[in-house]
Amino acid sequence: MKISCSVCVVNRVMPALPAHLRKKASKSTLALCRHPKNFEYCLILFSAQNKNSTKYSINGNIDKVLTKFVNEGKCTIQLKKPEHDICIQADSIQLKGFLHLLKRVLNGYVLSKELTLSSLSVTPIKPKDIAPTKLTITARSEYPSKGFPRTLEYLYINSIKRCGLDVGILQLMKLKVLNLSDNQIEYLPEELSNLPNLKELNMAHNQLGKGTIKQWSWIGGYLSKNLVLLDLSYNELTFVPEQLIKLQNLFSLHLSHNKLQKLPCGLGNLRSLRIFSASNNKFLSLPEGVPFREHGIPKALNVGSLKEYAGKKVLWARLPYPKGSIPLTLIEFLDYAKYCVCGKACFSLFLRNTHSMPLNYISETISVGATDTIYAPVDCYYCSLKCYNTSFHNRPRYAIVR
Question: Which residues form the PIF1/LRR1 pleckstrin homology domain (predicted)?
Fold first, then answer.
């Protein structure tokens, strides 16, 4: 049996080297074999730097097999002679199968016919036979007829006029970057939020603006914690849903060249956001995420319902509420929350006002015409009189654009 993996061999006799001098893992083929004459088992390691292979005896020569991170596709085989640690990283399913067979060999439970290859007949796995981690498709003829390899981590499907998301993409559990720019996609399925490793999603130059508010249910799930980049520019969007606030670790957000008149009121509460672009839209006002001054103080707010206060606590504590955990009516209630300048959510009980904000608060450079103003209207929500009064007396701090 042989597997394709990345291997780093560490000599335990040698002193530990600084990090920048240590050997890096290299693409390798690791085989488990039995000699046809003397029935001895061995490990054979091939790599680009070691094309002649290295043979390690197994019988009574394995000290430990460290499998703490085997679910992540990592393990270490410690040998007695030579005193080497074979650090392996491979597909977790293939690695588990390999280690299971190795365990049977060590315990003497392997039949003589199961491993019949001699050391001379073992050859490294060819690069073309190794499952890819990156795939780029720029023509319909390049689309895989047999589905996508489950090992993909980077997938680029551009300029082929796709109208929807291929369901095969939803099975790529290792996918980190998904780029579907320059197509004709109108909506994304809710199951997209089930991809546990997706960090970057590029949907620029599509037609998401034709979708309805219910077709944004893909915002949530694993994406709430993992997504760091979202590009929705050039999509003819007339709105961006309030669910955007679910993307807690979003670092880069692009909404340029759409038809947006306003932004989600909780946008300022995306605490990890560092890159934000929303040029070439039709904004009537800007949202506010932190306190600012406003004239005119209302008298009082009514007492809210238990549902209102419970919803505030759930969102403030950032508690997950996946589909199926609570009724759909409550999920919709939480998804469409407004956000106060203090960062807390509010639902039916809030104050709202518009403030004229000097643009030099949020930008070092301002380019306007001779007749244009340097002020922009800011749409503000307040969850309580305390927040309203505090914003009235405090100098504004703007954190929505970074």
Answer: 1-114
